[in-house]
Design brief:
Length: about 20
């Protein structure tokens, strides 16, 4: 899961958390 964080580094931490809230 966190592996994708590297690709989503462009988005903000909050946006990433919202995206993983699925």
């Amino acid at each position: 899961m966190y592996e994708l964080l590297g690709v989503c580094e462009n988005a903000t931490n909050e946006e990433i958390k919202r995206g993983y809230r699925k």
